[in-house]
Amino acid sequence: MWDASKCDLCGDCLVNCRYVDYDKDRAVTELKLLMDGKEADILNSCITCISCNDYCPTGADPSNLIFKMQEKVGTCPIVVTAKPFIDMMTKGLEEEGKPAELIPGDPEKPVLSFDSFEFSQFPEGTLESALFKGMTVVRGMQYFSLVGAVHMGAESFSERYARKVIDRLASLGKDIVYIHNEGYTLAHLKAAELGVPVPFKYTHLFEYLRDYLKDHSDSITKLGKKVAFQANCATRWLHEQETWLDEIFQLVGVERPQRHYEGINALCCTGPIVFSNKKLAVDIQVKNVRDAIDSGADAMITICPICNAVLKRPTSQLGLPKIFITDLCRMAIGEIPWPEN
Ligand code: SF4
Ligand code: SF4
Q1: Which of 24, 77, 105, 289 has the greatest CB tally within 10 Å of its CB?
Q2: What three-state secondary structure class fits 137?
Q3: Mutual orientation of helices 205-215 and 241-252 as an angle, nearest 10°?
């Protein structure tokens, strides 16, 4: 959450933003306008990648200030383009849309939450995989992660609906495994910031997969591949997941090649701007996939259905297999083969 008391107006956040070309003076001017609640150029240029939080040395959370102002101003391209989605999500959260879907599982096993994603947005066979056998599965707009609404000009969703979403998950009476890291971010970070209690045990997908692989190490055949990682934007809120991913890679016998666009330099998948700025989106996608290929990667893994969908065309055009993280684990336990080029 934006904390003005931590901001010393160093300008690093916006000087380092790769989607604008500001010097320090310009960056500071932009920030001062935002802090005064006024319109600023960055609101139209920001693609909501959340990287500036990593550039900020004081933890002031500058992206949150930008997202709040994008919502307040309401005329930025990503906000205008996303309006129909936000209307649909509001209906769902208010229980006026389609009912939630729940597939019951073994009473002693946890719930796998798909947040608001459709099951079909995940690779074929995900629900049938031994990885998730016997788990209760739930999805629907009622379980929206909320934190992802910052990509659509609805930063206030977290504050408005966090308690409702957490209470709905709590009413299932089980531990929750989040298949998408934004749901985990809501439970782990946002709920605490907003003072919303989370009365259930929750687990990040990476932790769950790591533990599953450790418990089933006899069924793993090491893949012996180099795999580039497409970090989705929520990784900027959850740096600990990098360690969990490294553990998964080690367990399945995968090496992460050194990339230019990695860690703090990682590129946005461009999901937030595919409709509002297609040219920029395509430029970034190509740069990203070429960088993965140049690093010697045999494939790229994605961990978010939006990144997975957006990167389908460029990875296929440039000849780099794209694998969802759960499928990478399924390959290691022999459920599915390594993709053919
Ligand atoms: S969120 Fe990303 S695009 Fe927006 S200002 Fe920060 S670094 Fe730039
Ligand atoms: S938000 Fe952080 S990086 Fe940006 S000006 Fe303030 S202290 Fe510097």
Answers
A1: 289
A2: strand
A3: 30
89 lines ligand 2 (CB under 6 A): no
- The number of the ligand 2 atom at minimal distance from the alpha carbon of 65 is 1
Contact 3, 61 (CB under 8 A): yes
Hey, how many other C-beta atoms are within 10 angstroms of the C-beta on 282? 14
Residue (of 99, 182, 173, 90) closest to 139 by Cα position: 99
Provide CB contacts within 8 A for 82, sequence distance 6+: 151, 152, 153, 154, 275
Q: 194 C-alpha to center of ligand 2: Å?
A: 22
Radius of gyration of the chain (CA): 20
What are the residue boundaries of the structural domains of the chain, listed by start? 4-75, 79-200, 218-332
Q: What is the pLDDT of residues 60-98, one digit of tens each?
A: 999 999 999 999 999 999 999 999 999 999 999 998 988
Assigned CATH for 218-332: 3.40.50.1860
Say how many Å lie between the CA of residue 266 and the centre of ligand 1.
Answer: 12
91 Cα to the center of ligand 1, angstroms: 29
What SS3 class is residue 225?
strand
